Amino acid sequence: MRDSKKCVLVLGLMVAALCAPANSSFAQVQAHTRMSGPPKPPKTTTTPTGTWLPKSITYIKASNTGRDNQFGYAIALSADGKTVAVSATAEDSAAKGVNGVSKDRAVYSGAVYVYARDNKGWKQQAYLKASNTAEGAQFGNALALSADGNLLAVGSSGEASSATGINGNQSDRSMPGAGAVYVFARAGAAWSQQAYLKSSNTGGPDVGYQFGYAVSLSSDGSTLAVSETSDPSNATGINGDQKNTSAPDSGAVFIFNHSGDTWSQQAYIKPWNTTAPNLLFGYSVGLNGNGDTLGVGAYNDEGRRGSVYVFTRNNGTWSQQMRDLANLGDALPARPVLLMEFHEPHRPFDRLFFRLQFEHRVPAKDFLGLGKRPVSDVKLSSG
Fold this sequence. Notes:
By secondary structure, the chain is mainly beta. The chain has three domains: 2-36; 71-330, Integrin alpha, N-terminal (Methylamine Dehydrogenase, Chain H, 7 Propeller); 337-382, no CATH class. It is 10% helix and 36% strand. It is built from four helices and 19 strands. The strands form five sheets. The chain has a four-stranded antiparallel beta sheet, with no helix packed on it. The N and C termini lie far apart (83 Å).
């Protein structure tokens, strides 16, 4: 009798499970867990498109791998993909120059490794160190290669010389965190240091401004942009007062040009509207191919929402073209502003916002020509 009751109970549970509505999660879960075990993940397949295959070509490591060296901190790739530069900012050899050797240590001095690819694959071409290697320099915190891979700019934001300008005193160590940029050139397969660049306002009185925090080269390598995120001047625009120190960590960008092996500073760039303390203007920089357009990130602008400033060069003269805010939202100030929103007719999600403060009026015609869009595509609103 007891066995027959068990049979009836089991049969009843099976019928209930089979007859339950299809959308009953209880029935589905019970059926899965009691009859077929854990649910299996859906079968997926990935089909490559075009000529791109999802696999690595090579695995690259430093030739002097060390614990916590941070190999891969920054990388730069040539336009043809045949030259790659890789930094290790915590590499600790005290060697100097190209392919140097030293048994001494310089903690966090940093190094850069250059690799070249031929028909046989990748191989290391050079091991680069600063010409004044020192502890804490973080040589390689930023990298930029020219399109052909024959010119390399290396940022070293912890470098400590108080020198200014081009090829100054590298042996000085009186300004920790002043920063420097080293330019290397390649002839054939041989690398050599071409220039030692410093800002025109390294720091003071005893703390540097982190020149070399970010770098960018034009395609031909003739124009170099270098940021100095701790620059303290409250100057605005182009070539303002570099001696001012009332806006700590506001940041600045320096433009350098070269002809042959000779480098010179062309411009000292600050935001056109305001330079506030802790703005970190120059947190990132980018040049277009011919070096005539510059984008500068300001990490702390608008309450850390950030912004990008775009500058253009015409016949050697730089000027600001626009300021782009990532997200206006409640960051809008109390004073009146004008918002201009450009709409692409077939790309509704691709919109670019401009914020223009009234004290810096810009003729509407200057903006209407930016994208060569008809007036009907422009919507104006006030906030």
